[in-house]
Amino acid sequence: MRQSNTLVPTLRDDPSDAETASHRYMIRAGLIRPLVSGVYSYLPLGYRALRNVERIIREEMEKAGAIELLLPSLHPAELWQESGRWDEYGPELMRLADRHGRAFALGATHEEAITALVRDEVKSYKKLPLTLYQFQTKFRDERRPRFGLLRGREFLMKDAYSFDATPEGLDASYKRMYDAYEAALARCGLTFRAVEADSGSIGGTDTHEFVALSAVGEDTIAQCAGCGYAANVELAESAPEAAAPDTASSAPAGDRFPGGAIVETPGVRSIAQLSAFLGIEPKRIVKSIALLADGKPVVALVRGDRELNETKAKRLLAAANVEMMPEADIAGKLGSAAGFIGPVGLKAGVAIVADEEVRGMGGAVVGANEPGRHRVGVAADRDFRVDRYGDLRTAAPGDGCRRCGGEFRFHKGIEVGHVFKLGTKYSEPMRATFLDETGKPRPYWMGCYGIGVSRLLAAIVEQHHDEAGIVWPAEVAPYRVHLIQASARDAAQTELAERLYAGLRQTGISVLYDDRDERAGVKFADADLLGLPLRVTVGKRAADGVVECKPRTAAEPFELEAPELAAYVRERLFR
User: Fold this and answer.
1) Model pTM greater than 0.70?
2) Which of 45, 69, 212, 379 has the fewest CB atoms within 10 Å, counting from its CB?
3) Terminus-to-terminus CA distance in the chain, angstroms?
4) Structure confidence by residue, pLDDT tens digits, 552-563
5) Which residues of the chain have pLDDT under 50?
6) 208: how many CB neighbours lie within 10 A of its CB?
């Protein structure tokens, strides 16, 4: 493509709202432009790179035996009501009504649509296993779109769905998709981890996230240096720390307070303030957090130096929705006071769940459910009941792996893919069944497999850039070669550049030909910003048939005889 004939509006300065390298460079390189917050147009080079990512994923899907189709973006509310998600999904689901008042949603995900299709078209076990996939625009009303393509309201996604007759068949389909994702992400040049994760609003059981390592990522993953276990911090299982040696009857602050006493703590609301006031470590305090689980009041307990993991609380409570209780509701629902909640003396009917580390705490400090007061010398199961224990804490630095005792290391990352074993979560409520060998109807065993294609493109740029611009991996780059004519007015340069442009294209090598009437310095700066794998400059030695080559990752250029260029490109960029 001639650069003079396409749309590559590069910018010298960073956009004022760009917080990440990918957002900054994709705007400056003229790959994308915002239409409104969280919604982007893909300009020619950005669209070519997007299509290259799509091609890589498509090839790996085909290798895994998946079949491509295309589903609608507009979904009738009735489908989501069948699955139960119309009310559960939350405000991110973009809802609308047609002129007749019929309710619809713009597809945030396609479990309902694909289940309805297969339910109507596939009736026999002889058609199974079946894996279908699509590339489709998704819509989610993000509360705070940010970071360019990393968190938007409209984005391109590849989603696949497997249908099997048995749980064992689902296991096999899941493994094929897992392996296909690893292959696709590796071809895209990403450094990533596949980690255990929570299924969120999609539902299901076993699930893994594919996380591209990046300091700007909104996900945190914990990885054991010993056995290699890795999980999203929402799910990471750390070994519980042994309880402090105090006996249940001893006071946490020495002999100043008798066990079980209520202590006046005026103005003390935070763990840090309470720790300083009583002269104790935060791990001697039990933190009480007021929650609403499917609308019902719950108090969750964790050690004072720990953070409650709401995802784990949701799993332990088997609740569809868990949220923090508004302060205004605490007195009425719990019989307590905000900042001084404790498990002793709560209203009847309030469920209490506790992290497993709380079970062995003796001589603990808890809120006294009255403003400005705390209770000391308290022990679980002696002074208050716990309805259920479990792992409720967020894994933190210093924690050990539950599986082998090794040390956890923490990394930030960008979720670019997610695979789920849905089981019969959708097939049963939507009555999607097939006839087995005996003629009996059975629900499909389903899997769901998603890759955020547009987010993946941004993640690649996050991992592949330098101070000058993007550094594209060869398979993803919009073009493999950036051919630059140093002077548009030099006849020898024009003749050689045109010949090379035609010759490279004839051999199937994609070329962006900078034939603009611009200064060489402007062209070189744009070339570094655009980041194509190889820059070929037709310059002062054009009359001798010699060009200058500079791989984007190289510090210095080298000279090459023009007839050797195509073979060099083939060898270097198509291995």
Assistant:
1) yes
2) 69
3) 23
4) 999 999 999 999
5) 202-203, 247-258
6) 23
